[in-house]
Amino acid sequence: MGRRTLTIFLLLSFFLSLLGFSLSSPEIRVVTAEKRIDLTSSIVRVFLTLKVENTGTSQAPEILLAFPPTEAEHLAILKASTAEGKRKKKTYVPLSVSPTELPDTPNGAHLFSISLHNPLKAGETTVLEVLYVVTHCLEPFPAEISQSESQLVYYRDSAILLSPYHVTEQITYIKTPSNKVESFTNVDPTSRAGTELKYGMYNDYPPYSYSPIIIHFENNHPFAVVEELVRQVEISHWGSLQITEHYKLKHGGARHKGIFSRVEYQSRPSISGVSSFKHLLARLPPRVHSVYYRDEIGNISSSHLRIGSQKSELEIEPRYPLFGGWQATFVIGYGLPLQDFLFESDDGQRYLNFSFGCPLLETVVDDLTIKVVLPEGSKNPLAAVLFPVEQHLETSYSYLDVVGRTTVVLKKKNVVPDHNIPFQVYYDFNPIFMLAEPLMLVSAVFLFFIACIAYLHIDLSIRKL
Asked: What's the pTM?
């Protein structure tokens, strides 16, 4: 009887502990949610403002965000911040965001956790500012267009914010490139004014609510997609930084059908091929020099370089305009002063401070590879990047190399202009290795002269004994 009583007591303690956990676990409610979607280019940017409240009895160290599977698959950037201070003294503090999982998430929703600097206490509220960028989510329809047709695309989303929490009030604004909207889903209340669609205000929706919408509109912005980009950054301690970029570019919009007419394209530029593009703008660092632009045929002269004190801009034109589905491959190279990008840390290590991403503006890069070629003799390389990337080491060989140069290789998929932020590569280097190549040249010249002197003083003629 005593053993049975003990067992019942342990079971009751277990269930009470579970009950106590559930009662003390944090409960979050979204008081207001404002969502602004920018569809003016080929890259979709979403600005989300959330005012959240802890309605539970314990502190909440994190806030969860939910995304549908199709959107999470093409998510390129996800940033979150919170405002601290008031009015003129207000500052936005970035917050850490990481993917997370919960059991039994409806409809395969993907969750991300925003870690708060200070846990949200019971009864307190905070405002979160979220920015996320989505690529390849504008679907051309029709999928093929002729040279004289405009490009129409579909955009799919939800009028209701997909959230793991109860949402009290929410509203969504969608901005299109022009007022040429073929159709859109109506979810009362819905209104349209010029280039902006407004969904809401919607009140009191339970967690994981979803109301699909489709917007069919005109978007003739260049759908420039770099399928593959390899950037090689070669460091020379003799005073230069050499950059070589190999591009495989395509037009990712509606495919071109029919025959291309150069006469029509040039005579009616505002009508013929409005969704095509014939030039791209690359933003390069200041004090750039020795710039070249070529493809498999050779040098391409149709480019314009503007050098300024803060930035340099290179406007390039492929050999032919790019329509939907068309591709082009080319190489851009340039040199930079070493002192602008190579520094020495307090512990004696040298480090390169360079920009990640693609210098072409408003371009999506499906597969990016950055190779940082360190001087021969470099040791202990370490790359510091602010977002997750694949990295490994390999060995490269150049002129007069003996043991090869250590090369730091960084790889990332789904890269957008928001990734163009600095990264660092740290390494150790002994200055004695700078004498290796001059000594090799001096030794080669010295041996050549010794061989010449020996040849002049040796008698190789055949004589009779």
From this structure: 0.84
Which pLDDT band, with edges at 50, 70 and 90, does 7 fall under? Answer: very low
Tell whether the model's pLDDT for residue 154 goes beyond 80: yes
Q: Which of 414, 423, 368, 422 is nearest to 78 (CA)?
A: 414
Tokens of 333: 């190279």
Domains of the chain, by residue range, sit at 24-218, 224-437
Q: Under CATH, what is the fold of the domain 224-437?
A: Immunoglobulin-like (2.60.40)
Arithmetic mean of pLDDT over the chain: 87
18 pLDDT exceeds 80?
no
Residue 250, token pair as written in the block: 């395509």
Closest CA to 64 of 24, 30, 107, 93: 30
CB within 8 A of 367, min separation 6: which ones?
A: 227, 228, 229, 411, 413
What's the CATH fold of domain 24-218?
Answer: Immunoglobulin-like (2.60.40)
Closest to 218 in 3D by CA, of 242, 188, 184, 170: 184
Question: 303, 315 in Cβ contact below 8 A?
Answer: yes
Residue 230 exposed, middle or buried by CB count within 10 Å (0-12, 13-18, 19+): middle
331: left (phi over 0), alpha (psi -120 to 50) or beta: beta
Q: What radius of gyration do the chain's Cα atoms show? A: 30
Residues 362-387 pLDDT 10s: 899 999 999 999 988 888 999 999 99
Give which of 306, 275, 305 is closest to 293, Cα–Cα: 305
DSSP 80: E
What pLDDT score does 435 carry? 60
CA 235 to each of CA 111, 405, 425: distance values in angstroms, whole numbers, following the listed order: 41, 10, 11
Q: Strand 364-373 and strand 224-236: pairing?
A: parallel
Q: Is the peptide bond before 285 cis (omega within 30 degrees of 0)?
A: no
pLDDT at site 432? 63
**SS3 state of residue 176:** coil
Take residue 410 and report the two structure tokens written for it: 């960084």
Look at residues 335, 276, 322, 281 and name the one whose alpha carbon lies nearest to residue 304: 281
The DSSP line for 349-413 is -EEEEEE-S-SBTT-EEEEEEEEEEPPTT-EEEEEE-SS--EEEEEEE--TT-SS-EEEEEEEEE
Is residue 47 packed enough to be buried (19+ CB in 10 Å), middle (13-18) or exposed (0-12)?
A: middle
Q: Do domains 24-218 and 224-437 have the same CATH topology?
A: yes
